């Protein structure tokens, strides 16, 4: 390939008109520079079609463009414009398959519970397009994200609306105080390249291998942690009751798209806790119908639709009784009765929390009006940043779009860093026992006692991306003269190892005259907000998840989008 080519991806995220209208603009500018622009279809539909060539006619077949671009992304010649793309949940995948089938594509149904090897193969193929299947393939490098100067200036001159804040607002973030990933995290730095094994041993001493081989490099940071099912369920019940007592909305904020293994499970437990009386009463029937709470309460509604009129009416009356007894829920669509718990992909934390903060900390209730909200974010690792913004706005009021500063981001994203690369190392534990990470010599590096239903995961962060991330942060501080803040929590095992590396690798760069700080996410939030209010610009240098959260949070506050 020559360097005179740009690949423009065809995706599917709304508004499609914006995606489609940008292409002629890119082509016009590129043509003047003698650069060719080619397109590749990596939409959800395109990826589904590419996975089942044997079922389709020659006219219907599509090449696996994502695999092609994944290889291209590893080369120096890569120049890919990756538009926003859907990270599909199971309900969204099923809807896409149904739509393609209606257009004559001979695609198999998604088998929720495979009964034979053929169905297991079908499910495995569909699993390749679930969740964030695109970004980990294309994002080989770290990220450097910032708003263009003219766009920021336009936003200041044409400010979007910002909801007024009341000092009496009851809106707040609720997170677990124990039993979450944060409290259980353990972390090691590899002293040599090796291959690790993840195993589970039950209470009787029977060992099973969860993942036989995970290659690691020298200097790599490896973490493991667990989310306790018992602690999570108790926490959810407490927060539902507290929302009732305070008379505020109950809402759950996860990222079931990107975190496609762990977060749908947590979402499912929230559904079962909120609708506990319903699942207690109809548990056997729901099991018979194939209800999967991980797909949201919408799955209950879909599965009971074909029951007899009397049976369906009885269940619907019980649902109404639950809504009378439980707190009102934040709504996705109050007119259609679609709640926060209907579909796991309907409420995505990096978009839902900034939108609520921009709307006076409120969300839409069943009555179609805005109300104060309890925002439940079970794990503490990053939840504090949103509480920090809420506290700041409650004290100082909404930000002034015409004067507020800018927050750019340098993100540790390369090579599936941190939680966003944990999908293939995340497991729902089948029984009480121990999960252990061992090196090739059989030495235990990380170990957790677990109970049935717990969620256990392992994350990796390679050394070379960390070095590059530090360099990018320093370079951006040098180019702009702005303060750069590494958002790292010394009380968190993973972050403590990163802090040691950051302090070491900063010595490799000229930092004279630069303002570079290392602060916990909560402290970094507070300082950044103070600077924003003063009209100052700040560089956030963060891990992969915070990169995702902050590059939505601040643009939504600054630009309205």
**Alpha carbon gyration radius:** 24 Å
| Total number of helices | 19
What level of helicity do the residues show? 40-55%
Q: Record the strand order, biggest sheet.
A: 4-15-22-20-21
Strand content: 15-25%
Could you please describe the fold and organization of this structure?
- It contains 19 helices and 22 strands.
- The chain is an alpha/beta fold.
- Among the domains are: 136 residues, no CATH class; 168 residues, no CATH class.
- Helix 10 crosses helix 11 and helix 15 runs parallel beside helix 18.
- The chain is globular, with a radius of gyration of 24 Å.
- The two termini are 36 Å apart.
- The mean pLDDT is 95.
Any descriptors?
561 residues, globular, 22 strands, alpha/beta, 40% helix
Would you summarize the structure shown here?
The protein has 19 helices and 22 strands.
Give the helices and strands, then pairings.
Blueprint: E1 5-10, H1 16-32, E2 36-41, H2 44-50, H3 65-72, E3 80-81, H4 90-102, H5 117-127, H6 135-138, E4 143-145, H7 149-157, E5 172-174, H8 181-184, E6 186-189, E7 194-202, E8 207-216, E9 221-227, H9 229-246, E10 249-252, H10 262-274, H11 276-289, H12 297-304, H13 309-325, E11 331-333, E12 338-339, H14 349-358, E13 362-364, E14 370-376, H15 384-396, E15 407-411, E16 426-428, E17 433-438, E18 444-450, E19 455-461, H16 463-480, E20 483-487, H17 493-505, E21 516-519, H18 521-533, E22 538-542, H19 544-559
